[in-house]
Specification:
Blueprint: E1 2-5, E2 10-16, H1 22-34, E3 36-42, H2 48-59, E4 63-67, E5 70-76, E6 88-89, H3 94-104, E7 110-114, H4 117-121, H5 125-134, E8 137-140, H6 141-144, E9 146-152, E10 160-162, H7 168-178, E11 184-188, H8 196-203, E12 208-211, E13 214-218, E14 227-229, H9 234-246, E15 251-258, H10 265-273, E16 276-285, E17 288-296, E18 304-305, H11 309-313, H12 317-324, E19 330-333, H13 346-357, E20 361-364, E21 367-371, E22 379-382, H14 387-396, E23 404-407, H15 419-426, E24 427-429
Parallel strand pairs: 2-15, 3-14, 6-7, 10-11, 18-19, 22-23
Antiparallel strand pairs: 1-23, 2-24, 3-5, 4-5, 7-9, 8-9, 11-13, 12-13, 15-17, 16-17, 19-21, 20-21
Bound molecules: shikimate-3-phosphate and phosphoenolpyruvate.
The site of phosphoenolpyruvate has 9 residues, from helix 3.
Length: 430
């Protein structure tokens, strides 16, 4: 399957609300299942990845009902989870795999876990190592490092664990396992990563403490079901932000989008690049700031993106690289080796795609160097089955001379099922 798109001579204009945040949608289902009583989730992201999280809990006997963007969970709590009869399939979702490993570590039954080709290549030992230290038993392919894998959980001992990789998924997995441990589990994160787990547990009546880089959680807390709404996903909003900056005479406002500071690195980086962008926090949903982003076409300049900033823009780097091809001067992205462990090796796929379109990007071990003001031609590029690469290619078509033909565009429904319709609705002839 292929999708041909060409948005040259189009501007992006108007107001939009993007679908619910993917990270928060996963976590709302997880905490709803771990809680006692009824949970109602509004504005849930009904993308393939989050549906995998729902299915996993249904397989453990939890009553989860999805009706469009509303999810209702009736749970008696984790003690009532039952051993799944069948393999649990995590599809393409790294978040489901890592966070569910944390939950299953604390359940005294056996589960067999699998994923699609991409997920089966991604490292799981970053999670199995700490949960084994806590007392879970796991084994899997490649010496236990990759899916398919099996897990038998049980009573866990608390640990103090310093993250060897800057990953919110690993942090969250250890904290979730910590809920089943006899005592206080502490995760030390040298560089802050997204903190939706820490914020959301409070909405379910849980307690978690942060002291500088140390996050501590007590085992055996009783969580209570709740009603909550999921704000728009800033990672999805970023595609339109990038498109607006690239296309002439463009001006959009994105409403009701999550503005958690661990996720707004994209705004800070774009401001440094010279973007005309304004952000306003209008309310809080639970502990999460929510508001609007207003952006207009801008001339950008190249910068260096590195260090502590990387986890705050980790999923936006495909877009930042595209923007850098049009900025004045050179952009350097470094300290971003984690990109090699995403749905694709995103350092390789970004470089490959942008160079095929006519850019000048040099691959580095931990990032890339991008020459600005390149004339992008267009052509045929694959999404490589990676939703964020596919969407970046569609946005590139705003500035390519010829059309962009995207091979395997279907993967976009992993995080944004109506992406092409929403993009079309924002596009106006110049
Ligand atoms: O915790 C999460 O919801 C996520 C964390 C990030 O992964 P890592 O924690 O592996 O960096 C991010 O790339 C992913 O899209 C979602
Ligand atoms: C890396 C991503 O997700 P996951 O790790 O959940 O597959 C992503 O959405 O870009």
């Amino acid at each position: 399957m292929k999708k041909t798109i060409h948005l040259k001579d189009m501007a992006l204009k108007g107001d939009i609300k993007v679908p619910g945040d993917k990270s928060m949608s996963h976590r709302a289902v997880i905490f709803g299942a771990l809680s006692t009583g009824k949970t109602v989730i509004h504005d849930f992201l009904s993308g393939e990845d989050c549906l995998r999280t729902i299915k996993a809990f249904q397989q453990m006997g939890v009553d989860v009902h999805q009706d469009g963007q509303t999810v209702t969970i009736d749970s008696k709590g984790a003690h009532y989870f039952t051993e799944p009869h069948d393999t649990i399939h995590f599809g393409n979702s790294g978040t489901t795999a890592r966070l569910l490993l944390g939950v299953l570590a604390g359940r005294p039954f056996h589960s067999v876990l699998t994923g699609d080709d991409s997920l089966s290549k991604r490292p799981m030992d970053r999670v199995t190592m700490p949960i084994q230290q806590m007392g879970a038993r796991t084994d899997g392919r490649s010496n236990g490092r990759q899916l398919p894998m099996s897990i038998r959980g049980g009573t866990l001992s608390p640990i103090e664990y310093e993250l060897p990789v800057n990953s919110a998924q690993v942090k969250s997995a250890v904290l979730l396992a910590g809920l089943f441990a006899n005592g206080i589990t502490t995760v030390i994160e040298p560089i802050p990563t997204r903190d939706h787990t820490e914020r959301m547990i409070k909405a379910f009546g849980g307690k978690i403490d942060r002291l500088n880089h140390r996050i501590s959680i007590n085992g055996h807390q009783s969580l209570q079901g709740t009603e909550l709404s999921i704000p728009g996903d800033i990672s999805s909003a970023s595609f339109y932000i990038a498109g607006t900056l690239l296309a002439e005479h463009s001006d959009i406002t994105i409403a009701e989008v999550g503005l958690n500071p661990t996720r707004t690195g994209i705004i800070d980086v774009l401001e440094e690049m010279g973007a005309d962008i304004q952000v306003e926090t209008t309310k809080y949903i639970g502990d999460e700031p929510v508001g609007s982003i207003h952006v207009q076409s801008s001339n950008l300049k190249g910068i260096t993106i590195s260090g502590n900033m990387i986890p705050r823009v980790i999923d936006e780097i495909p877009l930042l690289a595209l923007l850098a091809t049009q900025a004045e001067g050179e952009t350097l992205i470094k300290d971003a080796k984690e990109l090699r462990f995403k749905e694709t090796d995103r350092i390789k796929t970004i470089v490959q795609v942008l160079n095929t379109l006519g850019a000048n990007v040099i691959e580095l071990e931990d990032g890339m160097k991008i020459k600005g003001r390149a004339k992008l031609q267009g052509g045929t590029v694959s999404s490589y089955g990676d939703h964020r690469i596919g969407m970046m290619e569609a946005i590139a078509s705003l500035i390519t001379n010829e059309a962009v033909e995207i091979e395997n565009p279907n993967c976009i429904s992993i995080s944004y099922p109506n992406f092409f319709e929403d993009l079309q609705n924002l596009s106006r002839p110049l």
